[in-house]
Sequence to fold (100 residues):
Amino acid sequence: MGAAALDYQVVKSIGTSGQISLGKEHAGRKVLVENPEPGVWVIRTATIIPDNERWLHEPAVKKSMEKSLAWAAKNPPKESNPSELNVTRAISAKRKERTA
Fold:
């Protein structure tokens, strides 16, 4: 952990319930609380990734997503008529079979 420049310091008191108020502007935020040594706490804001979305951050998936996004950036959407697409008709036929 490197030395970081301090923007400011504020003295806070720990309440009887063990809580410290960081201010309303931080209400609802998720934070990581690290305890690198006794009496020292480092509090950092954090973004939590839900378990069911963690797979999106695996190296192979992330690389594939980056490749897909690069392709999409180079190939903007083109106007089309869905009724002229064979795929649309096939899907419509399957829907009709399910509802019959």
In short: Residues 49 and 57 are 9 Å apart (CA to CA).
